[in-house]
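Input record, target 12 of the design panel.
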């Protein structure tokens, strides 16, 4: 069996770095990119002491466009295991077109488990168990109120 092709683009990485710079300022920390086998994006640290781990996402719709944010169950498994081993929190940070919000990825925090995924790439491995987090679980760093 061959390895899956990476789907992360330069645009994804640029969005990730831009969002990380906002988080670094807001939370007064520095991000260190994690190797891909961690399945999360960054370790946040202050003076080389890790304080949290994060998964960063950018979306092209408003935060209220859908009632739930969907995360791969495998991503949540990785987050829960890393948190259990280190004692540090793992945050999912999402930038929508009108808000930046975050929630912790913890065992049992999801609101629903579904079988979901992208169908536009023709990759059968994109369909998998997913954990749905209600948008009400997110705290917001920024939120534009639009009438």
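The sequence produced for target 12 reads:
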């Amino acid at each position: 069996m061959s390895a899956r092709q990476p789907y992360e683009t330069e645009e994804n990485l640029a969005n990730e770095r831009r969002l990380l710079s906002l988080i670094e300022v807001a939370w007064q920390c520095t991000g260190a990119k994690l190797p891909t086998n961690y399945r999360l994006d960054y370790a946040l640290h202050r003076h080389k002491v890790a304080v949290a781990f994060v998964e960063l996402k950018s979306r092209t719709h408003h935060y209220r466009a859908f009632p739930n944010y969907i995360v791969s169950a495998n991503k949540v498994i990785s987050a829960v295991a890393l948190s259990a081993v280190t004692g540090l929190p793992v945050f999912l940070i999402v930038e929508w077109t009108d808000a930046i919000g975050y929630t912790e990825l913890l065992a049992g925090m999801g609101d629903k488990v579904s079988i979901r995924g992208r169908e536009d790439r023709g990759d059968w491995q994109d369909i998998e168990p997913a954990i749905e987090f209600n948008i009400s679980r997110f705290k917001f760093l920024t939120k534009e109120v639009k009438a």
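The CA atoms of residues 20 and 58 lie 11 Å apart.
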